[in-house]
Amino acid sequence: MNIASLVVRAKPEHFTQLEALYRGIPGVEVHGRCEESGHLIVTVEDGEGYATTDSILAVSTAGHALSVSLAYEYTDEGLGLQEA
């Protein structure tokens, strides 16, 4: 499992367009918006047939996204390989 939380900076007048674009990206969900600061809170989860990194790239390159910051990332890949 891979999960990432992103903070997307955009002009508030473009929030609706961005949210519509993000609904079409696998594993992406918009959880919040702040029109005063121009931020959207987005999570990305991996799934069968797509990778988290591809979805993060799609969020970052979507039209009207001014900047994207990675706020949190979790992966459980390789946890079974660690020794106690």
UniProtKB/TrEMBL annotation:
Superkingdom classification of source: Bacteria
GO molecular function: signal sequence binding
One GO CC annotation: cytoplasm
Pfam families: NapD
Record GO biological process: negative regulation of protein transport
Record bears the keyword Cell membrane: no
The entry's keywords: Chaperone, Cytoplasm
Broad class of where this protein is predominantly found: cytoplasm
Compartments, record wording: Cytoplasm
Record family assignment: Belongs to the NapD family.
Subunit structure and binding partners: Interacts with the cytoplasmic NapA precursor.
Role, per record: Chaperone for NapA, the catalytic subunit of the periplasmic nitrate reductase. It binds directly and specifically to the twin-arginine signal peptide of NapA, preventing premature interaction with the Tat translocase and premature export.
UniProt-recorded name of the protein: Chaperone NapD
Organism in which the protein naturally occurs: Pseudothauera rhizosphaerae
Taxonomy of the source species: Bacteria, Pseudomonadati, Pseudomonadota, Betaproteobacteria, Rhodocyclales
Gene: napD
